[in-house]
Design a protein that fits this description.
The chain is built from 16 helices and 10 strands. By secondary structure, the protein is an alpha/beta fold.
């Protein structure tokens, strides 16, 4: 008896399995078994009890003796999940073999063939991720995640940012969440992203449609050595600087692990494929994207619709890969002395809706309350305008533009300044 036949036999003995299984009609490869499966499902939807005679009456092509043989061979329905998994796996393998054969016979270029294969196979990766889940199952998963965070003995649950005040507000970058880092042109969006990469303490992925990997590595070296970034680019260095560079490269090799994809003008489809590849091959724990408006979408000619499409798909990516996605976004120029607002997110309000957390880079003056008094403070700030599961407010930072560094600023017992007056 095949796995499909045994599974159909289990359904005949316990018809309610039809409502529990995630097996789809087309995933039953045998036409004979598929007809029985579809017939039982149709009868239940019409309120008809599917016993052997009624199934035969509903579709005379189905043999009663064949159904009887199936029910006789089945000893229990308790392990139906095992057979469901086997059926879905057999279907996937069959489909992937078919796709590979079609692509190999095509006249596409090698790169086009790779893209087509990954795009096609991608549809089978998360087939079982979504469905109706009983509350006890979701609670067990939730407690397991809480316990894992506790046993991890980390001062923050998520991926570290390297700025302790920011980590305290967000508890690190959390799984399944989309973080937007807003900044006006030349305000330090890429620099902040690379600061996060340097302090992640996990294997991470970097998608850059703005800067090349050599440029980004120079930023990391400058950040680690505190050598002026412009001097590093020009080669205007001292002999002692090379010792620092060697040390920095050693640190980056031993203490960090990151993977680049730096194609200019990349599409959101390319980004999704490469992100999945990074997750499957290297098990990345976070993805950093620089920057949102530079990612193209083929869905529309209207720019705001393209940006909305990219935002929606980045949010879905965070959930599907079970990792945080941290994405830089361009803000409208406006008055650079004013504190950025959510409405300044360029091109689309969809970004604000999709993001779990939005923080803005602001260099300039800001009003705060200290001991009940309004005080104007000038400096560099990360303004958290939206935080779905945490506090909003501001974190003051020190920005060293010459080597792209963002650092926390301590104020007595706390690093952050709350109660912004807008």
């Amino acid at each position: 008896m095949t796995n499909e036949q045994y599974f159909i036999g289990q359904i005949l003995n316990d018809p309610d399995l039809v409502f529990k299984t995630t097996v789809k009609d087309n995933e039953i490869l045998s036409q004979k078994n598929r007809i029985i499966f579809i017939t039982i499902k149709s009868m239940l939807q019409r309120g008809v009890v599917p016993d052997l005679p009624t199934i035969h009456a509903d579709d005379p092509s189905i043999s009663v003796s064949f159904l009887a043989d199936l029910t006789t061979e089945v000893f229990t329905s308790a392990n139906w999940k095992l057979y469901e998994k086997t059926i879905k796996e057999d279907y996937r393998k069959t489909q992937i073999r078919t796709i590979c054969g079609e692509v190999l016979e095509s006249k596409s270029s090698s790169q086009e063939m790779i893209t087509e294969l990954m795009k096609a196979v991608d549809g089978y990766i998360d087939a079982d991720d979504y469905g109706i889940v009983k509350h006890t199952d979701s609670l067990n998963k939730t407690v397991d995640e809480i316990e894992s965070a506790y046993l991890g003995n980390r001062d923050v649950a998520g991926i570290k940012s390297g700025i302790s005040g920011l980590d305290r507000k967000m508890n690190g970058f959390q799984k399944r969440k989309l973080y937007i880092i807003g900044g006006r042109p030349s305000q330090g969006k890429t620099a902040l992203i690379m600061n996060f990469v340097l302090h992640a303490q996990e294997c991470v992925g970097i998608m850059s449609a703005e800067s090349g990997m050599i440029e980004l590595d120079k930023r990391l070296i400058s950040l680690r050595t505190k050598i002026n970034g412009e001097s590093l680019g020009r080669g205007d260095l001292k002999t002692t600087d090379f010792e620092k560079i060697i040390e920095a490269c050693g640190y980056l090799t031993e203490k960090t692990k990151y993977f680049y994809y730096d194609k200019p003008n990349m599409t959101i489809e390319e980004l999704l494929l490469k992100a999945r590849e990074m997750k499957q091959r290297f098990d990345i724990k976070a993805l950093y994207v620089d920057y949102l408006q530079q990612i193209k979408s083929n869905g529309s000619d209207k720019r705001h619709e393209q940006v909305a499409d990219v935002s929606i798909k980045l949010k879905a990516l965070a959930r599907n890969l079970n990792i945080p996605v941290i994405c830089a976004a361009q803000l409208k120029r406006g008055d650079e002395k004013s504190i950025p607002q959510l409405s300044d997110l360029g091109n689309s309000g969809q970004i604000e809706r999709d993001a779990d957390c939005v923080m803005m880079i602001h260099h300039g003056k800001i009003d705060v309350l200290e001991e009940g008094k309004k005080i104007e403070r000038e400096g560099s700030f990360l303004v958290i305008k939206k935080n779905r599961d945490g506090a909003t407010g501001i974190v003051e930072v020190m920005f060293k533009r010459e080597h792209y560094g963002f650092y926390g600023v301590e104020f007595g017992e706390t690093e952050q300044v709350d109660n912004i007056l807008f």
